[in-house]
Each structure stands twice: as C-alpha cells, then as structure tokens.
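A reminder before we start the practical. When you read a complex entry, don't treat the lines as separate problems. The point of joint prediction is that each chain is placed relative to the others, so the output describes one connected object in space. Small molecules and nucleic acid strands, if listed, are placed in the same frame. In the example below there are two entries. Take a minute to note the order of the lines before looking further.
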Amino acid sequence: GQNIDQPTEMTATEGAIVQINCTYQTSGFNGLFWYQQHAGEAPTFLSYNVLDGLEEKGRFSSFLSRSKGYSYLLLKELQMKDSASYLCAAMDSNYQLIWGAGTKLIIKP
Amino acid sequence: GAVVSQHPSWVICKSGTSVKIECRSLDFQATTMFWYRQFPKQSLMLMATSNEGSKATYEQGVEKDKFLINHASLTLSTLTVTSAHPEDSSFYICSARDLQGHTEAFFGQGTRLTVV
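Here is the predicted structure of the whole assembly.
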C-alpha cells in the first residue's frame, strides 16, 4: 500500500533550527512536496523535490533521498509565524498526491 | 504562483439542505481539480478527482450521489453537498493543476461547512 509517515508534533525555540522528517512508500514516484498549513487555512506550497539532494529556498530547505524513501524539511531562524502544520505529500505514478497526516510545529519564545 | 479561488469561505446550513461550493482557477486553465475534506487535526482526505468535461472519479467510501461534482469548464469546478447532515461539517478544500503539466497543486482558500 501507499503510506506517508511524519511526526505528529514537534516543538522548537524561536531563532533555532528544526528538521521535520518524512518517509514514504508509493506506487511509483513523481516527486515529494512540502506544504505549510496554518489552522483554519488551506495549505500553501513550500517545496518540490524529484531529484536526490538538497533544495534551498530562503529559510526553508528540503532534502530528498529516493533510494531511502526519505525527505526532510529544514526550517532555519525560526519565527513565531512558522507555527503551523507541515504536510508532506508524495506523488505516485498516476500523478496523484498521497498526503501525510501533517506535523504540527509549535514555536516557543 | 497560480491562483485558485474558492467560494464561499464559510457556510452554515440547516440539516437536510444542499450547499454548493465553487472552485475557480483565476489565471490558468485546470484540466484536473481535486476535492479534499479535512476534519480537525487530521490530514487532507481526497474525496474525488474532477476532469473537465467528464465524470468525476470518487475515492472509496465517498458517496457520489451525496457529493455532486461538476467540472463544466477549464476554470470552474463545483462541489454540491446534498441533504447535508451534521456529520458533513468539515473543511472542504479544492486544488487544481494547470494545462502546462506543472506538478504543483494550487489550493483554494477552503470552505468551512457547518451543518446545524
């Protein structure tokens, strides 16, 4: 079956760095997405990886290892506004997105 | 990025009535639109995939006669919750992909439905 695993909740301190891990098992693979979702709002796109390696975009970076079925989202210089849920989604061979349950990130001052 | 507009943002309706939710791609043409439902503190659950000009494909367990989907044009898809019940109260979100084949899914703002 198809499955996405990510931690349910993480806590970090303002100004620090946090890494949110995601492992996936899909029928075929066409890329890994990270979305940010604030409470009561729709998800917003953060990153897309289809090749192995690290993609950096400002304070956010995303890493992918296809052989390990593993990705992480790295958030640097955390700000209070980064408190949100972070959704990992893998695209299968039919180009359908398989969603993880999301990781709720709590930022403390 | 591309813009997807979803309307209404929130709606309260009486049990037994029907509610229509619209999803529009404002600056691109979407061959495929997706409808999701999200209960509090849970992940997005795909309800159906809607392709322009053809019948929607519903996920297992989703009643197609209760959740009517129409994708009449490349910029508009609608979800109608018929004979709504309190258990249908949820956050409904649409997303769309453009004709260029970009893999990124653009999301609407979501609709908070409360059935009383």
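Discuss with your neighbour: Residues 8 and 35 of chain A are 15 Å apart (CA to CA). What might explain this?
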